[in-house]
Fold this protein.
Amino acid sequence: MIALKRWIAAGCSLFFLGAVSLNGQVTHPSDPVLRSTGYFPWKNQETKDPATMTREEFEEWKRRRFEQDRTRYTFLTAQEGPVDSKTYRTGPGDELLLHITGAMELQIPLFVTPEGRLFVPSVGEFHVSGMTLENVQEDVVRRAASVYKNCDVGLSLETLRFFRVHVVGEVRFPGTYIAQAAHRVSDAIQEAGGVTERSWKGKIELRHQGGNTDYIDLAAFEQKGILDHNPHLSGGDIVYVPPLSPTGAIVEIEGNLSHAGYYQVVPGEDLMDFLNRVGALQKHSNLARFHVLRPDSRSLSGYRRIQPYEQSVAGDTHFSLQSGDRVVLDSEHVYVRGAVQNPGAYPYVHHMKAIDYAGLAGGDYSSAGYKRVTVYHAASGKTRKGPDVVVEPGDVVHVDSHWTQRFDVIIRIIPTITSLILAAKAAGFFDR
């Protein structure tokens, strides 16, 4: 009985140890680490934003994540669906499996060599690099069937190959990165730290080893999910993200913090098409609050203010953008200032009042309470007082200070003023 208990305990220990990965995590199917997908590690475990990292920090972060997760990379490959044998092209590093059933039962693993060749025992050599998986299957099965008679022969793709791609141009960290056949252009760009503010997503170049170049509108994929504009990668591909073209129309978006920056206008698109393409329209966006500042030398400010969607009253919703235009959008924030503990920008919440934002910012000892609140409406330029004023995006909420605080300021500056007066009198300024 004692021996039986020891045997059971040893078996349980081995089972537990076998369920633990090298990084100390239990590799149970319900474990969130196993459920996460993708080859690129920093897409799965977010800590510090890559946009704030230096190149050295970025590389160290990727290395550390790869070391932590390398165990699951050996058996997890994130795919969008079954591999299409008609379009998938084999290459060095692909692993295939030859199935033989019937008179004999065999499963023979096959590997595509770095030279692009496939060696099948007792059958021969095949040059498969660049061929579709379907064509490789047909060739191998046809020749193998003549060797393994009275057997059913099949060939399947077991493991997708890894390869190198080059990401250059307007990305944060240009360089060479490891990818897999299941990865797309957006994955490679994200691996390189994302695009810069000067990038032009509308005409990304995907240069293949054969000399062909595909032009990709990555914004069309990001906004509309068009997969044709986010193709899969192949070994040796060069992903080139171009800068904004100096010859095209370039406009600036202001007001909306998440979309602020410079953008290139596609020839023929109007303002609404442009805003939809860059994803600047939100659920509560008020088109009547949008305006365009257009360069105008006759104006004192150098710009002429245009509210494009006032034209829609006459049935004309088309508004063409010009190079140098500044598109001022409905702000996503409300700004609180004055006698509060935490002045600054706060996210806009539909139908919240001035007293709510003042409460979020926290009144301090010098405030006059939440009743003396002034709201400056950004859209109309008007000012309203009171805690129950409904706040709109972009508005400024000002909390007035208490009268004792203002009196204290006066008391503090009286000695300074008195000293200046006495010094001026001693110098004889009042005798002249």
About this structure: Confidence is low (pLDDT under 50) at residues 1-46, 71-76. The two ends are 117 Å apart (CA to CA).
